[in-house]
Amino acid sequence: AEIGDLCNLRELMLNNNYLRLLPFELGKLFQLQILGLKGNPLGSDILSLFSEVNGTRKLLEFMLDNLGVSTSPPPARQWIQLAPLDRKAPTAIFTVMCYNVLCDRYATRGLYGYCPQWALSWEYRKKMILDEIKHFSADIIALQEVETDQFYKFFLPELKREGYEGIFHPKSRAKTMSESDRKHVDGCAIFYRTAKFVLIKEQLVEFNQIAIEHANGHEDMLNRVMTKDNIALAALLQTREPCWESSVPPDPSQVAQPILVCSAHIHWDPEFCDVKLIQTMMLMEQLRQIVESCGHSLRPGHKKENNVQLLLCADFNSLPDSGVIEFINNGKVAVNHKEFKDIAYKECLLKMLSHTNNDQQFTHTFQMNSAYSADLLPFTNYTYDFKGIIDYIFYPKGAMKPLGILGPVSEEWIKESKIIGCPHPHIPSDHFPLLVEFGLTLGVPRSSPVNQVMMPPPTSHAAYMRRMKEF
């Protein structure tokens, strides 16, 4: 059985070894290119498959698909308490999930050769994904890589039964496709619990359209940025009274607090780090404009800064030390940042960022923190070729604070079970869902976090509150 652990093996010669049977663990050798089996009295079914065109690959896939799952499911992810609930002032409490569910058309043998085909199939994975979403029961759910057809026929009806409403938009390419092809295009979705939130407005952000608008004939803006059809989806929500479980604001007008929730998916290719950074800059500028227009419409005549709070949930396809995350965290990035690849984007981008007159830095107007840090969650994406943090939940500094987060999948389980990548029969996506419980407190400065305390994840807010009282 240990031969299956040699997943880097490229060549295996088993000629003339009097083998009558082959261990199914050979199927784990998904990178094997040459397999020698001559001179072995193997069964006719094995030899027949092996003699076909691409016989080595077909035989290995057959072995992997028929290999029994010997690993037990991972233990429950622990809940990490970050801060106590502030009971001195009215506080809206809600949970937020961010999850790239890996759409069906990307879940291929070519990309995930270590996973059996039956565990890659959408019919198998979708039930596990839905079970996860229902188990954690977040009040706001931001999803990426949701196929159009699956949103309308699966996620929306299933989650409506659980008390949610949802919005969705596919990537920009859908506009150019036939109806039959359009239903397989993936996009971003946002679900919200109707008992706690009401939807005021939704808005789509299409990066290729913004690139066209601001290119002014710039060749790289047209050829590199405009050709990527990633999107973001924003939903302006207002809190309802059940959000204020600890205490309802004395002023009834304060019950309906506006929160702009964004689900975004940035371009994936590391060779296009300039595109990732520019898409993120476009996103923050569009969100600024949305927040400003929403603030004016919600409180007409108010000159004071509006109080629409931004929750940004995204697969940024960018590591914590990238220009993308530097820009979001610090509110600025140098115009000559290395990730622009020495391409002269400066003039286009300065015109796009109309709120700034700084010609040495590109800036945005939000003050954001990441709810997760690398010491609490070492990776959000786990494949054979890549393991790292690329998914994030950002929240506004001061206005909100994370009370707790869902901890990582057990690294001990990953090591002991020899999980070389996901998806896996027990893990339905190559991404792990993020889950954060936030407190939005009125009129009270942010308090310092307490020591982290490990707990089982709350399956409902009520259960979490009971544990908080016990703590």
Relevant terms:
471 residues, alpha+beta, eight-stranded mixed sheet, six-stranded mixed sheet, 13 helices, globular
Distance between the termini: 46 Å
Radius of gyration: 25 Å
How many helical stretches? 13
Helical fraction equals 25-40%
Shape assignment: globular
- Residue fraction in strands: 15-25%
Q: Which whole number gives the mean pLDDT?
A: 91
Oligomer: single chain
Biggest sheet layout = 8 strands, mixed
Q: Would you tell me the structural class of the helices and strands?
A: alpha+beta
Strand order of the largest sheet: 6-7-5-4-19-18-3-20
As residue ranges, the low-confidence spans are 444-451, 461-471
Number of strands: 20
Secondary structure topology:
Layout lengths: L10 E3 L20 E3 L7 H7 L4 H11 L13 E3 L9 E10 L16 H4 L1 H15 L3 E8 H13 L3 E7 L8 H4 L3 E8 L3 E10 H9 L3 H7 L5 E9 L18 E8 L7 H26 L10 E7 L7 H8 L1 E3 L11 H7 L8 E3 L4 E3 L10 E2 L4 E2 L2 E6 L3 E7 L4 H6 L17 E8 L11 E3 L5 H10 L1
Helix pairs in contact: 7-8, 9-10
